[in-house]
Amino acid sequence: MNSGHRFLLVLAAFSLIPSQLSFAAEENLLWAWHHVYITNDLPGDPSKTLMVHCRDKNKDLGIKYLSQKQVFHFRAQIDLLRKNLFFCNMQWNGKQAHMDSFSAKRDENRCRKHCMWSVRPDGFYFSRGNSRWDREYQW
C-alpha cells in the first residue's frame, strides 16, 4: 500500500471517531446525558408563578417562571470525573430555597437518565420514575 492510500485510510479512520463518541455519549459509555425535570406542583392562585434559576459552574440556564403544572427541562452531562453539579434557586409566595437539582455523583445511578423533581408547598420531592416521591429539600 503506497503512502497516499495509507494517508486516506488513516484520515477515514479519524473521521469516524466523532460519530463513535457521539454514539457512546448517548449510550452512557463515555459521557452520559441525564434529563432533569422540575414541575411546579404548587397550589393556589394560578397567577403566582414559581421562579426557578438553575446553573452549574460554567452554564447559567436563566430564570424561568413556571405556572401550575408547568415543567422546566434541561439536560445535564456527566463528565469522566463525575463532578457535575447543577443547583437551583427557587422563589414562590415569599419563600426562597436552594437545591441541588443534579449532582453527578449522587444522581448517576439513581436517576436512570431521568431526574424528576416536584415543587410542593412543603418542599422539593424527587422521583426516579414518577411512581414514588421522596421529599429531599424543604423551603
Automatic annotation (TrEMBL):
Signal peptide: 1-24
UniProt KW Secreted keyword: yes
Gene Ontology terms: biological process: rejection of self pollen
Keywords assigned by UniProt, alphabetized: Secreted, Self-incompatibility, Signal
InterPro entries linked: Self-incomp_S1
Subcellular location: Secreted
Domain of life: Eukaryota
Pfam families reported for this sequence: Self-incomp_S1
GO CC terms of this entry: extracellular region
Family: Belongs to the plant self-incompatibility (S1) protein family.
Name of protein: S-protein homolog
